[in-house]
Structure formats: structure tokens, C-alpha cells
Amino acid sequence: MEKQTQEELNKIKEKLDGLLEKWIGFNQYDANLLSKIKLVKWEKGSVVYSMNVDPELCNMFGTLHGGAQATLVDVLGSMAIFSLDPTPNTIVPSVSVEISVNYASSAPRDSTVYIHSNCYKQGKNLVFTETTIKNDKDEVVCKGSHTKFVLKSKM
Amino acid sequence: MEKQTQEELNKIKEKLDGLLEKWIGFNQYDANLLSKIKLVKWEKGSVVYSMNVDPELCNMFGTLHGGAQATLVDVLGSMAIFSLDPTPNTIVPSVSVEISVNYASSAPRDSTVYIHSNCYKQGKNLVFTETTIKNDKDEVVCKGSHTKFVLKSKM
Amino acid sequence: MEKQTQEELNKIKEKLDGLLEKWIGFNQYDANLLSKIKLVKWEKGSVVYSMNVDPELCNMFGTLHGGAQATLVDVLGSMAIFSLDPTPNTIVPSVSVEISVNYASSAPRDSTVYIHSNCYKQGKNLVFTETTIKNDKDEVVCKGSHTKFVLKSKM
Amino acid sequence: MEKQTQEELNKIKEKLDGLLEKWIGFNQYDANLLSKIKLVKWEKGSVVYSMNVDPELCNMFGTLHGGAQATLVDVLGSMAIFSLDPTPNTIVPSVSVEISVNYASSAPRDSTVYIHSNCYKQGKNLVFTETTIKNDKDEVVCKGSHTKFVLKSKM
């Protein structure tokens, strides 16, 4: 991938932070998760967010719930897609075709996880993303894929 | 699958409803979803829950969020496993190996969906479930799989 | 799904058998597998093929190879799609978006398996299929999904 | 991952090449594919093979068959696992739990592809691998996962 200028990188961050804030305001299913994540690294097509594993994100084993991990694969895959175009506020609307997640290790309550999402193919109709959640020892918690179908009109 | 007596079926329902209530009380990641589902059909290894698509379960298109669907595939797959053994309150603890979901149609806000989960293979180490979410026209909203690894001690 | 007349069912069988023969003739990656399967049950959108687990389809454990199972999920998912329209020889061309397979049991060499494929959603752009391979005791060997993207021109 | 000495790397290559030759000799489902791949890069837990897209590996569009790609995700994920332990000829036997593949681009007949497989988690019971097939322009053809369950006795 070609190098971006610092100005472009700043625009990507501004856009992603703006979308995040807007979505938290929508107060929908992902609002609680979105309110906990923080962009720590980014470039065109690729983002890393950090998140604290708060107790209300856990399962009965006291570790990050598999459904929360799947929702992160869903939402942050979309963020990776939006990072491809730094134009403020525009998004190419798309719908989910599939999500899959492989659970390799658990992330205990109150630990920090890092969610790496990457858009590795942006076709005219289909967009492909992959997401890896790692714990603070850089071990893989899960790896997931999220494939989306592009709707035609820009939003 | 062999037929169950009405008494066995009653015990399965009692067990599942008891687990549901207990888990809602844990107030963890799935509590909000769990508080919205209602067991409408069940037998050994197979459950159907109904759910209203409340606004707080939606995405920005006003339809059931893909992450909520994945969480239902996760949690109700586990319920299908627990329905295999009607003994009250006991569960064989297990952890997720993978979840995958294919999104076929959307389920609009305020509609009713039916979540069908089925455990089609219970091995010594691995348990396999499949889940189909349907809308009220009996169309498939999504189909998903949830595979779990069995931990040895009963809870 | 609405009932089909016997005449329609005959046309579907004729079409599927014709496509199978044609493809075996192409002598491509799936030719060997295709030459071993036999249509035993069918309706609009749904097919069942039987197959003998010949030694050359096995892995080093002497059971049906996971790659052969994945290829069956691929190819027979497409057959289920083609069974939707009984018009002879026409197919709506489409390309694979994803395939996933969960391996529940093994199918030993020289046993018979039954491959059930079903197209549960035919959208304008995306088509969704599910496939279950069962052994001769009606146990699940694997369950898989195959999602395809529809190309516009008919072939 | 810690650096390996040149001697260790040589032992890994010798082991993998030996297993490949042995398996081709078994003449089973994957023998044809295995006879076409060549190890071009490797370290502990990670391998890259190159392969020419021969006509008999293609589909009716003249590109690498989705079933062949899934079989590569299966087999080379196992090779990545075997590369973890350089001891000659020993393998920890394991069986497939799931395979999933996302198809991003096609690889035309007679082009060269590079298959990158990586074992990112080796647990006591479960082993997780990911595989990316790239074309000669370094674009992603597909990304897949292969999860295996470890059988206890060494072979």
C-alpha cells in the first residue's frame, strides 16, 4: 500500500473519530461497545483500536463474550473500509454477507485488548475485511472475517 | 431423534427457562438480548425462541444488527446443547471454537424473529450447533454455526 | 416451497444430469468427484446426491478428505441453485464469495454418503446455499455453507 | 516468534519436503495438488508454497477452482502446524474441526500463486491456522482458516 502523508493520516483519524461519535449517539446495538474503543493506529484501509474488557462485556467465565468479539469483527471491519476514503463524513453503504470468528484464547475481564482490522480487497460489489483481536501479551484472542456487499448510492 | 415424553419436555423447558433467568441476572454482555427472547418450541437438542426486534438491537439501517444476530447464534446454540440433558441446573461447560453467520435478509425494527437452534452432533470433545433466524414470513434472515469445545468438569 | 408437477421434476432431473455430464467432460478440478455422484432426490432448489467414498477421495486416516468435502459443498451448492430454474442448459453464472465447512464425523473409505444441498435464498445479487453430508446411518459428517455472487449475463 | 538458527531452518525444510513426498506417494485426494506445490519460504509455524495454476485445477471460468483453494487451506494449514516441531517424520495427528474460505479475486490458469500458511495458536487440544493465497501481483486471491483438534498419540 502506498504511503500516506501526515495530512491524509490526520484526515482519516478525524473521519473515523467523527463516525464513531455519531454512531455512539445513535444509541443502537453496538453503542456500548463503540463507546469503549479508542483508535490507536491507522492508515488507509487498516485500523487498530484498543479496548478495556469491562465486566459488562464478559460471559459467565469472566472473559470477553464471543458475541462481543463477533460484534467487534462486524463493526471494526466496517471502520477499516471507511478508512480507505478520507473524505469527511461520506461512507459507501454496505450490508453484511458473512461474519466468521475463530476463538483462540480468552481475554480476561479488566485486561486490555487490541482490535486490528484490515480491508484487504475492495471490489466494485464486494468488500473483504479481516480482524484480529490480541491481548496485551500480543497473543491472538480471535481472528475473524467480515464480508460486505456494496449498495450503490453514497451516504 | 427418539420421542420424548411430555414429562421430559416439561423438564427441558423448566431447565432452559431457569438458566435464562439466572443468566439475565448475571447482567453480562448477552443480558439485554436474553431478556427479550421467549422459548416457543423445544425438544431434546433443539429449541426455538421468538424475539421482538427492539430499536436498541438495530443498526443504522433500522434492522437487526449483525452483531446481535451473531450473539444469538452463540447463546442459543449453547441453549440447544443444554436441552440435551434435562437434569435441572447442570450444564457441561464449554468454550467457543468458532462462530460463523451468513446474512441472507434483514429483519426490520419492531418485527418478530424466530431463532431455531439445533445441536446436530455432541462428541466427547466437540459439540456442533446450527442456528437459523427467520422472520415472520418464514424467510431466512441468517444461518449460522457455533462449534464448542467441552471442558471436563460439570458445573 | 410450492409443489412441483411430475413434469417439472423430470425437467429438473434432466437438466442437472445434463450439466453433470457436460462438466465431467470439461475434465477440470471437480471432474473426478462429479463422476462419482448420483442424483437420488430433488425438487426446486434442493438436491440429494449419493456417493461412494472411493479410496482416492480419502486422507491418511482412510476417511473422506476434508478438501473433498469442501469441494462437494462448493459444487453441489451450485447444483441446488441450478435446480431452481428447470429451463434446459441455462445457468445463471455466479462466483464464490465464501465457503465454510464444519466437520462433525468422519466417513470411512468404501462407505456411502448422501450430500444434501439446498438454496435457501436467491437474491438479485447474492445466492445462499447450505449443504449437509450424511453417512449411511443418517449421522452428520459435515455441514457447510456456500455463498455466491451473481454475474449479470445468462450462460 | 524467536529467531531460528540456519540449522533449525534446514531441519524444518527437510521435514516438510519429506512429508510432502511421502503424502504424494499415498496417492490420495490431495496427491495431485501436493505434487504441484514447492516450498519457497518457511520458519517455525509459517510456510509459503508456490504453485502453478495448471488447467486441471481450474473451474469452468478458467480460474483456480474454489474447491482446490479450500483443499490448499486444509493441507497447507497442516504443513504450518508440522513446521512447529523440526523433529524428522513425527507429526501430532489431528482432525479438522472447520475450514472457511473467503474468495476475493480469481487466479487465472497458468499463473503462479503463493500460498502462505501460518499457525497462530497451538493449544493442547485445538490448533488454529490461517492461509492466504496471493497471485503474482501480491493481491489476495483468498483468505481461509483451518482449525484442528489434536489427537493424543504421536505418529
Automatic annotation (TrEMBL), chains A, B, C, D:
Q: Name one Pfam family in it.
A: 4HBT
List localization entries. Answer: Cytoplasm, Cytoskeleton, Spindle; Cytoplasm, Cytosol; Mitochondrion; Nucleus
GO terms for cellular component = cytosol; mitochondrion; nucleus; spindle
Keywords tagged on the record: Acetylation, Cytoplasm, Cytoskeleton, Hydrolase, Lipid metabolism, Mitochondrion, Nucleus
The chemistry this enzyme catalyses reads: a fatty acyl-CoA + H2O = a fatty acid + CoA + H(+)
Using the UniProt record, give the first listed, main subcellular location: cytoplasm
Q: Where is the Thioesterase domain?
A: 61-142
Which Gene Ontology BP annotations are present? Answer: lipid metabolic process
| Domain of life, source organism | Eukaryota
Q: Which GO terms describe its molecular function?
A: fatty acyl-CoA hydrolase activity
Would I find NADP among this entry's keywords?
Answer: no
Role according to the record? Catalyzes the hydrolysis of acyl-CoAs into free fatty acids and coenzyme A (CoASH), regulating their respective intracellular levels. Has acyl-CoA thioesterase activity towards medium (C12) and long-chain (C18) fatty acyl-CoA substrates. Can also hydrolyze 3-hydroxyphenylacetyl-CoA and 3,4-dihydroxyphenylacetyl-CoA (in vitro). May play a role in controlling adaptive thermogenesis.
The subunit field of the Swiss-Prot or TrEMBL record says: Homotetramer. Interacts with PCTP.
- Report the sequence similarity comment from the record: Belongs to the thioesterase PaaI family.
The protein in question is named Acyl-coenzyme A thioesterase 13
